[in-house]
């Protein structure tokens, strides 16, 4: 077990070079009117994106948790998932970890709560974690702060869809150098405008990432990104998928090249233009299909976790379990506020071509709209 864990740690750390930031990306500037904005976006990306040191520290935390958990549980797997591994992480990002273990009961949620409660008590006993909280959500999460380096960790049990979508987003990040700075800039823009928290009826970072990938698939011409579900149907088929390493490289990724030559600034502005004019009443955003899906069709998909009542105002298809990743936006006032910020951001960027004009943007809030 020890040899295996140290081997995995070495392999994960060796991937840090793949996630390293290029200080001089190709064609960042082209002498056009958008150069200042493109440079500003890339400067923010290089200053805020997860560093190699931060990534390697998170891998060390994973290793230590793995070794402590083995003292109280047998036969399990522990995956780092989310932005730490996709290349879309910030230095300030939490560490998302998925524990895979054979269920003891037929009630998956109750079983997860039992396992996480057991692990929480064990880690507290050895002073490995501080400020712990077991969140009794639909997908239970053990939140805690790791004791040595201070990172916040979200640990779930058997939510394997997170492993699949981490690998998918890692592959998209590898397709084109512009994807990572654009995703991180959109996430920071959402944070600055306070519309990046599912607990407050707004949009999670994961959903913003899917929106950006979708836009790069079908909101620009030529496309920046392909639809990997179409390019590799067997690899991303939810019925056949078997991922042992979220950093598994698909050899054909090196053969994917976009004919799109737009700058970071043009693509960033275009993101807001695309969603300012998106028909949210009729369509759902789908990375899996590389296009739009009728919301009514999404409601009818037969999947264990899908529920037609979760498809409300902002609809984003989860690529593997077919649920709505933006189901937290179930309040019409919150949705209108998000849409107003998107539209105003587009107008300001077109008018000023300045990044600071949208960090945050100023919108006129309807006086009857509750504050979030």
TrEMBL record:
Pfam families per UniProt: MTPAP-like_central (PF22600), PAP_assoc (PF03828)
InterPro entries named in the record: MTPAP-like_central, NT_sf, PAP_assoc
Entry's localization field: Cytoplasm
Keywords: Cytoplasm, Magnesium, Metal-binding, Transferase
MF GO annotations: metal ion binding; poly(A) RNA polymerase activity
Gene3D superfamilies: 1.10.1410.10, Beta Polymerase, domain 2
Listed GO CC annotations: cytoplasm
Cofactor(s) in the UniProt record: Mn(2+); Mg(2+)
SUPFAM superfamilies registered for this protein in UniProt: Nucleotidyltransferase (SSF81301), PAP/OAS1 substrate-binding domain (SSF81631)
UniProt superkingdom: Eukaryota
Domain Poly(A) RNA polymerase mitochondrial-like central palm: 37-173
Residue ranges of every copy of the PAP-associated domain listed in the record: 263-324
GO biological process terms on file: RNA 3'-end processing
Protein family (similarity comment): Belongs to the DNA polymerase type-B-like family. GLD2 subfamily.
Protein name per its UniProtKB record: Uncharacterized protein
Source organism: Dendroctonus ponderosae
């Amino acid at each position: 077990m020890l040899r295996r864990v140290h081997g995995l740690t070495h392999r994960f750390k060796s991937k840090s070079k793949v996630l390293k930031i290029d200080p001089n990306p190709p064609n960042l500037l082209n002498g056009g009117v958008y150069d200042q904005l493109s440079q500003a976006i890339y400067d923010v990306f290089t200053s805020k994106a997860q560093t190699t040191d931060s990534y390697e520290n998170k891998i060390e935390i994973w290793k230590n948790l793995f070794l402590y958990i083995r003292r109280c549980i047998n036969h399990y797997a522990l995956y780092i998932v989310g932005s730490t591994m996709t290349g879309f992480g910030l230095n300030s990002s939490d560490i998302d970890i998925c524990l895979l273990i054979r269920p003891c009961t037929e009630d998956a949620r109750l079983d997860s709560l039992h396992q996480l409660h057991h692990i929480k008590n064990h880690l507290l006993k050895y002073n490995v974690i501080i400020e712990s909280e077991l969140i009794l959500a639909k997908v239970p999460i053990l939140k805690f702060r790791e004791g040595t380096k201070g990172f916040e960790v979200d640990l779930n049990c058997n939510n394997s869809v997170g492993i699949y979508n981490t690998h998918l987003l890692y592959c998209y990040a590898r397709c084109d150098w512009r994807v990572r700075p654009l995703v991180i800039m959109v996430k920071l823009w959402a944070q600055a405008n306070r519309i990046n928290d599912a607990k407050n009826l707004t949009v999670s970072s994961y959903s913003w990432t899917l929106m950006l990938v979708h836009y790069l698939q079908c909101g620009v011409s030529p496309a920046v990104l392909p639809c990997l579900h179409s390019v590799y149907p067997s690899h991303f088929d939810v019925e056949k998928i078997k991922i042992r390493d979220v950093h598994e490289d698909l050899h054909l990724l090196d053969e994917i090249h976009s004919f799109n030559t737009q700058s970071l600034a043009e693509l960033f502005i275009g993101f807001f233009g695309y969603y300012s004019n998106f028909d949210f009443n009729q369509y759902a955003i789908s990375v899996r299909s590389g296009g739009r899906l009728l919301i009514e069709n999404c409601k009818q998909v037969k999947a264990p976790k899908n529920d037609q009542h979760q498809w409300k105002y902002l609809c984003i298809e989860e690529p593997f379990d077919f649920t709505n990743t933006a189901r937290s936006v179930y309040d019409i006032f919150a949705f209108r506020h998000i849409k107003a910020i998107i539209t105003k951001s587009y107008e300001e960027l077109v008018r000023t071509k300045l990044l600071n004009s949208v960090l945050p943007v100023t919108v006129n809030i309807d006086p009857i709209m509750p504050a979030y």
